[in-house]
Amino acid sequence: MSDSQFGNETAVPIRKSKVLQRNRDPKLGLKVTLGFIVALIFISPIIWMLFVSIKPNGFSTTEPLEWFLPPYTFYNYVDIMFGSLIFRWLFNSLIVAVITTALTLLITSLAAFAISQMKFRFKNFIFIFFLLGLMIPGEATIIPLYEVAKSLGLIDTYAGLILPMIASPLGVIILKSFFDNVPKEVVESAIIDGCSYFKLFYKIVLPLAKPALSAIGIFTFIGSWNNFLWPYLSIMSETLYTLPVGLPVFNATYSQAYVQPMTANAIASIPVIIAFLIFEKQIVKGISFTGIKG
Amino acid sequence: MREWEWTSLLPILYFNKEVSNVRKNNALWGLIFLTPQLLGLIIFAIIPLISALVLSFMEWDGFGERSFVGLENFIYQFSSSDFWKATYNTILYTVLTVPIGLMISLLLAIALNKIKGKEIYRLFYFMPVVTSSVSIGVIWMWILNGDLGILNQALAMIGIVGPDWLTNTNLVMISIAMLSIWWQLGYNMVIFLAGLQGISKTYYEAAEIDGASKFQQFRNITLPMLSPTTFFVAIMAIIGSFQVFDQAFVMTNGGPGKASYTMVYHIYDNAFVDFRFGESSAAAMILFVVILIFTLVQFKLQKRWVHYEE
Q1: Closest chain A residue to B5 measured between Cα atoms?
Q2: What is the H or E stretch that residue A134 is in?
Q3: B165 Cβ contact list (under 8 Å, min separation 6)
Q4: What is the per-residue pLDDT across B201-239, written as a single tens digit (0 to 9) for each?
Q5: What does the alpha-carbon distance between residue B99 and residue B107 come to, in Å, rounded to a whole number?
Q6: Which of A260, A259, A114 is closest to A187 using CA atoms?
Q7: B191 to A60: CB separation less than 8 angstroms, yes or no
Q8: How far apart (Å, rounded) are the C-alpha atoms in residues B97 and A256?
Q9: Exposed/middle/buried for B160, CB within 10 Å: 0-12, 13-18, 19+?
């Protein structure tokens, strides 16, 4: 006992002095600069996209540095914003992603709550059923999904983009492991006191799962925002395109030019990147809290 | 842990009557809470899966009659060179992206874990993740362009003649894998960072005192403690990479020839280009079974190599 205490006392000063030494690291400046350069190179495709987007239409060069030098013009932005449906597509992407996220959070948390906190027959069976759902690759069932959506009148509608995406088995599994941490005593005493399940759900259990909810919300939002194949197949009208479906249109129309597709890309990416810069802390925190530890 | 569970049973044993009431309500409420999720899953996942299974034994052009053809669609796939090309490309993509992508993102996470201002770096590395696969595809299509692309222009500056990244049949899949690693790196890195922060510093302090080298610390503390995270990231990455499609579709149309033709591309082509819905469903079922086997094997192996902290 006294031995270990002694060990601790000596260990602490040693560590402290090491930390102090590291802070006075003469190479620190170099390391930071190097790290920054690597990060900049990593992100250079996106920087390049932004620079090309403000180049005069039809610009092309063989000098790599000239991509980043003036002349600049914002005419492409004006041209694309008013000459195409890109704002409409941006709006479609946004509305689909927001509704998909909200509905996913609602129905997965309801299901996870039932599985985690209630006792009834076939519960484990249903949970295994959800686990199986996790293993069905969306892309593999896309043809019959098209048939199902057609028979429900969902082809070429917002609902058709949203509804097939909201029953996320992964969401249920993550939330269940979170809800499992709510002490059973709290739940049982609340029920015995006559607290209804809905009240229990949104007053006690849901607030405790905020980090998991924000993580699933972010996964779902990014997933919906990036979703390509399903919107590509199920949407016919140009006015209902989402951004990923609409963007290649610029590529095809202006196959020789760099500038137009990059401007369209920039218009599509800038809102997400800004949203990301604003919510970065929550996003990372959300992902970190997902209860990956199992 | 066990003790806590046991005591939590006490009120149930004691208030036997209330519990039976609770139970009755439970079944009804359970159903109400579960219904939306169950309906969604059944309508948009289970029914399509069963339909795909049924359709894989049928001949159907999307409009006319469906007729039962037994195993013919599977025989067609297994003897089709396109099917094997797609399988090969998909496996190549998985083998390239998953181990390399995981390794780079883990090393990056370790490097960033102790650096000052890691929030700013994290911002940089995560940015591609929020950009859509189609945008990424369009950007890289131009960057990797053999003659006009900025990458080859930059390589020329230092005297290297860059290859035709996207038009060389041997290179195109590697190029697509490369940019996909770049695209998803930040996502895996953030999950690894979270895992690293979950490891108590006392382990490293103890190891330091015992004179363990940085590599020994990595090998004996970081890796085992991080194994649940690695497991999660690996599973998601593998399942995702088996379904690669967008990048190839946007950038190369599966070409040149069939050089970047993937499994999902094959399923898509069979159905929506050739109108062979039966054959397409057979390929889809094969993909499903492969992913299923993979997931089950991984879950089985998880017990052997994943270390959970108790």
Answers
A1: A184
A2: helix A123-134
A3: B144, B145, B146, B149, B151, B152, B171, B172, B175
A4: 888 888 888 888 888 888 888 888 888 778 878 887 888
A5: 12
A6: A114
A7: no
A8: 31
A9: exposed
Angle at B248 between CA B242 and CA B249, to 5 degrees: 110
Neighboring chain A residues of B33 at a CB cutoff of 8 Å: 110-111, 113-114, 118, 197, 201
Q: In which residue are the tokens 């959070």 written? A: A105
What is the predicted ipTM? 0.78
Residue A252 has pLDDT above 70, yes or no: no
Q: What percent of chain A has pLDDT over 90?
A: 14
CA distance A226 to chain B (A): 5
B140 vs A45, A67, A169: nearest CB = A45
User: Rg for chain A (alpha carbons), in Å?
Assistant: 26
Nearest to B29 among A118, A144, A273 (CB): A118
Cβ-in-10-Å burial (0-12, 13-18, 19+) of A3 comes to exposed
Query: Which of B35, B259, B247, B265 lies closest to A142, judged by CA?
Result: B265
Q: Classify the C-alpha dihedral A165-A166-A167-A171 as positive or negative.
A: positive
- Whether A243 and A93 have beta carbons less than 8 Å apart is answered as yes
Encoded tokens for A44: 């250079």
For A147-159, write each residue's pLDDT tens digit: 899 999 999 999 9
**A53, two tokens:** 């987007």
Looking at chain A, the domain(s) classified CATH 1.10.3720.10 span: 85-288
Q: Is the pLDDT of residue A162 over 90?
A: yes
Residue with tokens 């590697």: B174
Closest CA to B298 of B244, B232, B240, B241: B232
**Closest chain B residue by Cα to residue A136:** B288
Can you list the domains of chain B with their CATH numbers?
79-305 (1.10.3720.10)
pLDDT > 90? residue B18: no
Look at domain A85-288 and name its CATH class.
mainly alpha
Amino acid letter for position B219: R
Give residue-wise pLDDT tens across range B22-81: 445 567 777 888 889 889 998 988 899 898 899 889 888 877 788 888 888 899 989 988
